[in-house]
Amino acid sequence: MVAFRRIIPVLAVVAFLLGSAVTASAQNPPLSCFATGGVSTPARSEGLTELLGDYVLNCQGGIPTPFGALIPSVTIQIFLNTALTSRLLTTSTTGNQFSEALLLLDEPAPGAQFACNNTSTTFSPTQCNGYGDGVGNNPNLPPTFPYQARPLGYYGSGTTGASIGTCVNTGVPATSTPAGIAGCPGNNRNVFQAIQTTSNSVTFIGVPIDPPGSNNTRIIRITNLRGNANALGVAGANATPTPIVATLSPTPAQFLPVNNPSQTVAFIQKGLTFGLFTTATGTTASTTTNLQQCNSRTVASSTSSGQTAVTFLRYSENFTTAFKKRSIASSDTNPSAPSNQNNLTAGTFNTESGFVNIGLTPNLPSGNANLTSLPAVAAGEADWGTRVKAVFNNVPNGVSLYVDLVGNFNCSATAPTGQACSDKFILTSGETAAFSPIAATSGSPNGLAGTGTGQLTITNGQGIAVWEDVDSDPNTFATINFGVYVLFTAAPGSNSPALATTTVNGSYAPTSTVTIAANANVPRFADTSTATNVFTVVPCLTTLLFPFVTNQSGFDTGIAISATATDPFGTTPQSGTCTLNWYGAAFTGATPTPTINSGTTFATLVSTTLNNVTGGFQGYMIAVCRFQYAHGFAFVSDLGARNLAMGYLALVIPDPTSSSNGRLATPDVCGGASTVAGCAATGENLGQ
């Protein structure tokens, strides 16, 4: 009898709710949902895993599921017009591939987010049954409504798939707040994980969608969607940026009718401009710097501030969020700081990471087990902030290459550790490794504003520098500069440094060919860069013109070339060979000399050098010597110098300006140390 009396209040409440439901069925409009693209964020055209705006459904109407009844479930698939590249949190080649993409119901507060992870063998681990409370979890009920505190027990960490009725304290009157409900953890879940289904879609299986009725709104948010923006490209000049469109497809459609299922969730723009400049603050583009093989470049041979940069690499963002730090907690003292970004009312975080609830991730079907090899540990979390890189190719043997450790924007020149900047990049150890700052290399140039430089490892002529954004401002257009420094000890006799032109490619990092969803690092980028010349190691030359030489008609010409770097002035001795280039009707060609050591003279006769020229040679000769301070003398006479003889000094002519432009006919002003435009500081033109 006592048990029967306890059941009476419950039956009364059930009758009340059923009566309310009948009344509501006559008044409530059908369930209807309207989609929005959240924030249509700019997406970098270089990006393969660009974080997109959330896809949000606002649903109203319908009849709330009766108390204790099973909420209708809907399978929700969302498509992009490009590859959907949200990170896969598992590596299995069979079965479900769990994605970092999540679906959240009713904008739960950070402490009220409960993940569906069904351990039943009957259902998918991403599918959790939900049970109604008769009012659709409506928080707007009048105070006199029975079980007013019931919304506290609607979502929670209680028994997965259990009816809300198991939390009812039947001994409490229906018009008061039951103690059992107040302490009920709730059995319904409000966070669901997607599985990757096709290259451009993910699916949320069996999500319980309880119609909210006419006086309430059910919000369905899909977050952590990433897309391959690079595959769609950038619209032409003055055209609307290319959109990334998300389209939602529910099954069965009548349980979740969506009026406008296709929504723009991002607009694609070029994110990065890269260039070379002569100074860190100027606007003059840098041209190829010629470095003479015989002139050493060392820190000791330069100013007290260190060797000057041969160029400055400049990375500029084309919209204010093209550079992002890893998380809202990241700073230059802790760039890899993990951070919850789970407050759905906080707006856009403007970080490489999306929605992150670190404590929630272990409760998702994917768990944490397969993320041990990656820096990231939570769904939605990026591995690092925006990275940029410089790839140097064809670096000559014998050259040491250095770059600035730090690049700053909108802070003091040196920006010591801990000082906030609008944007700040720091050199890190690898393109796809966890952030690890590089320390200044001992004995290297001081670099830009004395912040220090790091030496690059050169492998097969290639060196790579990678910097990470550790502090970013979404309200500024940042421009970051890094100096490039070249050091070597001259040894032209052994061809060191080697003669070569070094190029650089500037881009986002890491670059990747993985263009679909994968259990791989986020973010990833396509390499859209082009090579630009940085510096050329050129030989140290003296070019000598012998305007008339002959060994015809009984004459011969003696030629002498001296290497005069050995002198009383402390000039560094230089030695090398000369190439004798002959131009005449009988013969045109080149002959080499042996090495002419500094302080010695090479002498020969035209008849000896060109002894195979039938009938003898008559014309002129240009000697290109692979050392500076060469001087020449010619002596023309009949055999034995008995009747006619004359001698002259060879003309020292300026080096050619380029392989295409040739020589400049301005010898009088081009001395060896001349700064006159068009003159090369080689040779030793004495102003003939």
How would you describe the overall organization of this protein?
The structure is a single chain. The protein has 688 residues and is mainly beta. The chain has three domains: 2-269, no CATH class; 271-336 and 385-538; 542-669, Hypothetical Protein Tm1070, Chain: A. The chain is built from three helices and 33 strands. Strands 1-4-9-6-7-8-5-11-12-2 form a ten-stranded mixed β-sheet, with no helix packed on it. A seven-stranded mixed β-sheet has the order 14-24-23-16-21-19-18, with no helix packed on it. The longest helix has 26 residues, at 2-27. Residues 1-26, 147-152, 169-180, 369-374 and 667-675 have low confidence and may be disordered.
The dominant shape is elongated
The count of helical stretches stands at 3
Strand order of the largest sheet: 1-4-9-6-7-8-5-11-12-2
Indicate the low-confidence ranges by residue numbers. 1-26, 147-152, 169-180, 369-374, 667-675
What is the typical, i.e. mean, pLDDT? 84
Q: Which value, in Å, is the CA radius of gyration?
A: 38 Å
* Ends apart, CA distance between termini: 129 Å
What's the total count of β strands? 33
Q: Biggest β-sheet: count, sense, barrel? A: 10 strands, mixed
Q: Which range does the strand content fall in?
A: 25-35%
Helix content class: under 10%
Total domains, how many?
3
Relevant terms:
seven-stranded mixed β-sheet, 33 strands, 32% strand, 5% helix, mainly beta, Hypothetical Protein Tm1070, Chain: A, single chain, disordered N terminus, 688 residues, ten-stranded mixed β-sheet
List the helices and strands and how they pair.
Elements: H1 2-27, E1 32-36, E2 41-44, E3 50-51, E4 55-61, E5 73-80, E6 98-105, H2 179-182, E7 191-198, E8 201-208, E9 213-223, E10 226-227, E11 242-251, E12 262-269, E13 272-277, E14 289-292, E15 311-317, E16 387-393, E17 400-404, E18 406-409, E19 423-428, E20 453-455, E21 463-471, E22 479-487, E23 500-509, E24 532-538, E25 542-550, E26 555-563, E27 578-584, E28 588-592, E29 601-605, H3 606-609, E30 618-625, E31 630-638, E32 645-649, E33 651-653
Parallel strand pairs: 2-12, 14-24
Antiparallel strand pairs: 1-4, 3-10, 4-9, 5-8, 5-11, 6-7, 6-9, 7-8, 11-12, 13-15, 15-22, 16-21, 16-23, 17-20, 17-22, 18-19, 19-21, 23-24, 25-30, 25-33, 26-29, 26-31, 27-28, 27-30, 31-32
